Amino acid sequence: MMNEYNPFKMEVPGHPSGTAQDTGVSRMRRKIMTDSFSQAPRMAVEQTKNVPKRAPEAIQQVVMANRILGNEGILDALGHVSLRNPENASTFFQARSISPFEATPDDILEIDLDGDVVTKTTMRPYGERIIHGAILKARPEMNAVFHGHFVAVIPFSVTNTPIRPITHVGSFLYQGVPIYDDYEPGGGMLIRTREEGERIAKHLGQHRVHLLRGHGCDIVAEDLPRLVASAIYLRDNATIQWQTLLSGKEMTYLSPGEAKAAMEIGLFGASPIDRMWSYWVSRVKKNMPDMKNWKSAARK
User: Fold this and answer.
1) In whole angstroms, what is the distance from residue 44 CA to residue 83 CA?
2) Are 281 and 294 in contact (CB under 8 A)?
3) pLDDT of amino acid 189
4) Nearest to 136 by CA among 144, 125, 127
C-alpha cells in the first residue's frame, strides 16, 4: 500500500516529542500551505541555452548528465537518467546497463515510452527503464527523468517523515514529496513491469519528486540541467533537514510562496541554471580526462 501522505506530520526517531515542532506556522498559514501542496507548480520555464534541439546533441547531454551525477556522488554503479528525444517525443535516450561513471555516446540507447529498445543493438538496457517511459508518457510537459538511490532520502522513505524545503535550493520541493509503497510482490522492489511503471507515474502525479520506500527516488524536470540540479539539491536539502530534525531544535521551513518564487527565480531561472550546469560540466572535465573535449549542446 502507498503511505498516506501528510506534509506536516513529522515522525522523527529520537526527537523528544516524537515529532518535530512546527510552531512558526499558524493555523491560517497551515491551511494556505495545505492548499498549495495540492496544486502542481505552474512555472513559465525560461529557456536555458543548454536545451538540445537535435538528437546527437541530446545524446551528448545524456552522457554529460551521467558523468556529472557520478562525479557529484549522486549516482554510483546504479541509477539512471533519461532525456526525451527532441526529434521524436515518443522516444527517449538513456545509457545501456552500465555505471553512469562510464557512459559514452556509444552506450546511449533510443527507447520508446513503453520501454522497448528502438536502437538496433545487442546492448542490454536498464531493467527499470520502464520508470522513465511511464513518467514521460504521463508528463508530456516534462522531458527528463532521474531514478537513483542516494542515501540521504532513505530515512525519510522509511519513517514517513515528509521532505520539505528547508533551504532555497530545495525550493522545488514545496509541493511535498509523497512516498511510494506499492511494489510488485516478489519483484525485488524493482520497477520492471509496465503495470508498475504506470503505478509509479500515477503516484508521482504532478509532483516533481517522489520517494520509493527503502529504495530511492524518482525526479522529473523540463530538461537535463534542471533535472541534475534537482537531484543534487534534493540530496542537500534532505541531508540538512534530517540533521536539523535530529538536533531536536525548532526549525523554519520555506513557505509555499517564498519557495515557489525561489524555485522560479533563484534556482530554475535560465541564468542560474546555466551557471550551475557550466560549473558541473567544468568539474567533470577537470576530473575525467576522457571528457576534457566534450562539446556543449549550447548554441551561441
Assistant:
1) 20
2) yes
3) 59
4) 144
Name the CATH topology of 27-43+51-291. Answer: L-fuculose-1-phosphate Aldolase (3.40.225)
| C-alpha cell belonging to residue 150 | 542516494
Contact indicator for 41, 73 with CB cutoff of 8 Å:
no
pLDDT digits (tens, 9 = 90+) for 22-42: 433 333 333 333 333 333 444
Q: Which helix (H) or strand (E) holds 211?
A: strand 209-212
With H, G, I as helix, E, B as strand and everything else as coil, classify residue 224: helix
Task: Give the integer Cα–Cα distance in Å for 169 and 58.
Answer: 26
Cα 10 from Cα 28, distance rounded (Å): 19
The sheet carrying 88-95 orders its strands as: 108-112, 88-95, 80-85, 144-148, 216-221, 209-212, 179-180
Annotated catalytic residue within 72, 87, 102, 128? 128
The pLDDT tens digits for 215-238 are 999 999 999 999 999 999 999 999
Burial 261-287 (b: 16+ CB within 10 A, else e): bbbbeebbbeebbbebbeebbeebbee
The Cα diameter of the chain in Å comes to: 59
**Catalytic-residue membership of 128:** yes
Q: Which residue has the cell 520508470?
A: 131
Numbers of helices and strands, H then E, in the chain: 8, 7
The grid coordinates listed for 127 are 531493467
Q: Name residue, grid cell 524545503.
A: 165
Sketch the domain layout of the chain as residue ranges.
27-43+51-291
